[in-house]
Design brief:
This protein has one domain (9-67). 6% of the residues lie in helices and 28% in strands. It has one helix at residues 25-28; strands spanning 9-10, 17-20, 38-39, 46-49, 55-59, 66-67. Strand 4 and strand 5 (55-59) form a beta hairpin.
């Protein structure tokens, strides 16, 4: 099974965003893959944390910019 979950996140003052996934996400998905797209500027984005508790953290961005 493969799910696609997408959204646009606004980075905080540290250039980070915490994405909270639906309650069912972790139960149905075992091997998650991520694709981060910078909006508005180049940013060396990375996954700071992987999905413990149906959430993950993006880091390495520019404050107040967006990530898809």
């Amino acid at each position: 099974m493969k799910n696609v979950y997408d959204r646009v996140a606004l980075l905080d003052d540290k250039g980070e965003a915490i994405i909270t996934l639906p309650d069912w996400f972790e139960a149905l998905n075992r091997a998650s893959r991520f694709q981060l797209t910078q909006i508005g500027a180049f940013m060396p984005l990375y996954m700071a944390d992987e999905i413990p508790g149906n959430r993950f953290r993006i880091a390495g961005g520019i404050p107040d910019e967006k990530v898809s």
